[in-house]
Amino acid sequence: MEARTEEVEKKGQEEIEEQRLRERMEVVVEENPQLEIEEEVEEDKQRQRLEIHRHLQGEDRQAPAQKIHERQTQAGREVISMQRSLVAAHISQTLVLFKLSP
Questions:
Q1: Residue 93 has what DSSP assignment?
Q2: C-alpha distances out from residue 83 to 9, 76, 93, Å
Q3: Which end of the chain is more exposed for a tag (fewer CB within 10 A), N or C?
Q4: For the segment 42-83, what is each residue's pLDDT rounded down to a tens digit?
Q5: Given CA atoms 77, 80, 86, 91 in this order, what sign does their dihedral have?
Q6: 17 sits in which H/E element
Q7: What angle do CA 32, 33, 36 make, to 5 degrees?
Q8: What DSSP string runs through 40-66?
Q9: What is each CA distance from 36 to 41, 46, 48, 79, in whole angstroms?
């Protein structure tokens, strides 16, 4: 009879422990999605910050390159303008020489 009582008590304790474990797991499961959501939100914020940072760095990198390109374009325009002036001067000189020749 004592063995039977011990078995019943042991089963009762096991059931109580299992119930406590289930309750703990339910709490963890209930809390965990919230924790996961919070972690995902934080990760999204970090990703957005990183994207903004990269975007700003990209703009900073592009700005000097764009300025260099603009300077080169302007220098090219000036060279073309000088070449046109030289061609015009050469044509004028040639016309003057033809007029002076007998």
A1: H
A2: 107, 11, 15
A3: C
A4: 888 888 888 888 777 776 666 777 888 888 999 999 999 999
A5: negative
A6: helix 2-100
A7: 85
A8: HHHHHHHHHHHHHHHHHHHHHHHHHHH
A9: 8, 15, 18, 63
Structure-token pair, residue 20: 């406590």
* pLDDT tens digits, one per residue of 78-102: 999 999 999 999 998 888 888 887 7
Sequence letter at residue 51: E
- For the segment 12-26, what is each residue's pLDDT rounded down to a tens digit? 888 888 888 777 766
pTM to 2 decimal places: 0.37
Q: How far is 26 from 36, CA to CA, in rounded Å?
A: 15
